[in-house]
Structures are given as structure tokens and as C-alpha cells.
Amino acid sequence: MARRPRLNLPHIPQHVVQRGNNRQVTFYTEQDYTVYLDKLKDYGRRFDVSVHAFVLMTNHVHLLMTPTTATGVSQLMQSLGRYYVRYVNNTYKRTGTLWEGRFKSSLVDSDRYLLLVSRYIELNPVRANMVVHPSEYPWSSYRHNALDKQIELITEHPVYQALGKDKSARKQAYQALFKSQMPDYSVAQIRDALQRTWVLGDERFKKQIEQQLGHTIELKTHGGDRKSASFNARDKNQQL
């Protein structure tokens, strides 16, 4: 099956995930996390890509970024990936690949989903049972977005800035988003959009993307009984 072309558009946020090959560990020491974040900041500036949220897990990363060009995110990820592989191989006297093929990404409707994706990203260590609360995990953007830590690589998205009239109000409002559990269907939507290199947004947003791309982006369903309960349940979940 041919690879689905990646949807890249300027000024549209992207949720990006890159995993270690065969789910192998990609970060071994604190220095590794620091090196990755420093280069993420550098390449973000070089390719004019704003980073709004991130989490570095032991064997994969999640990033929420907005490029100013159609190629910005791809250029950043390729440059960052190559640099970090060289760093790991040189540091730990290893050879071969580190990352699992192409990174996965989805376009994000900032009006409805940007803060949801940010929460999803920063809650990864909680879902993995590594910490009880995202504030306890040092390698995510939560401490910048919700607490008093200033992370230089973070650029606050206008949707985040609209949470309050000043920094304190914004952080309090952002903290409040984490007091309720994310609905299972929202988690499923985010994962499905990533898996299919898809669009996370409502019909208005999808139409906007189609106009910018100049062609339709609807997925075609292959196989399966359209009248079956499993198909209908899956179709319903995709519309939530």
C-alpha cells in the first residue's frame, strides 16, 4: 500500500510523534533530554517553526508545532533526527538507526483542538504510570504552560494566550483544564488522526484545509460491512 502523502500547510499546527525503532529507548540520561531540547529550539528558529507543547518519553516524543512554511516541520524533524542519531551513536558507541521510519503527524484545528492536544501530550507520563500528575514530569512543556518554569523554546499559541489577560490568569486557566479526565473518544480521535496522517478538526476546518490544498482530503473506506455494528460504531467514533 502506498504511503499517504503528508499534509503540510503553513500556519496550521501539527501534532508530531516520533518513536524509537522497535520501541527502543532513545533517551538514556538527563543530558540526552537536554541535548534534544536544545537542538529542537535551534532548529525551530532556523526553520521558523513555533513549538507550543512537547513531551520527551523514554522511547518517543510528542511535539505540537506551527510552521510558517509548508516544509518547516519536515525540515525541522529531519535535521533534528539526524543530529540526535549522530549524538547518540557517538555518545554510546553504537551504530545503525534510532528512529522508527517516518514520523507521524496530523493537522490540528487550533480553535477546537489545540488545547486538547496540548493536554494529551503533557498527560503522556500520567497515562504511562510514570507520574501521578504532569507537574511531576520534568521533560514536558507542562511546567511552562501551567507553572512558573520558563522554557525558552516554547512559543505560546494565541489560543493559549486567550486563556487569560495576564500570565498568572493563563496558567491558572490551563491548570484547570487538567482537573477533569480527557474523554476516551477525544484520546481516540487524536490517535486516529496521527495514525492516518489525518486532520483533527470539524467539517469547517477540513473544508478550509481542502481549499488550501486545492483537493479533497476525505478518506476512502476499504472493505468491511457498512451495515455491521462494528463499522457503525467505528464511524460514529470518527464523527465525535
Order of helices and strands: EHEEHEHHHHHHEHH
Could you give the order of strands across the largest sheet? 2-3-1-4-5
> Number of helical runs?
10
Q: Please identify, by name, the CATH architecture.
A: 2-Layer Sandwich
Radius of gyration: 18 Å
**How many β-strand runs?**
5
CATH level-4 homologous superfamily: Transposase IS200-like
Taken from the alpha-carbon principal axes, the silhouette is globular
Short structural description:
With 240 residues, this protein is α+β, with helices and mostly antiparallel strands. The protein is 45% helix and 12% strand.
What can you see in these coordinates?
With 240 residues, this protein is an alpha+beta fold. The chain has a single domain, classed as 2-Layer Sandwich (Alpha-Beta Plaits), CATH 3.30.70.1290. Helix content is 45%, strand content 12%. A 5-stranded mixed β-sheet has the order 2-3-1-4-5, with helices on both faces. Strand 2 and strand 3 form a beta hairpin. The chain is globular and about 50 Å long.
How is this fold's topology laid out?
Blueprint (H helix, E strand, L loop, with lengths): L13 E6 L10 H17 L2 E8 L3 E8 L4 H21 L11 E5 L1 H13 L1 H4 L14 H4 L12 H4 L5 H11 L6 H12 L3 E2 L2 H11 L15 H11 L1
List keywords for this structure.
240 residues, alpha+beta, Alpha-Beta Plaits, five-stranded mixed β-sheet, globular, disordered C terminus
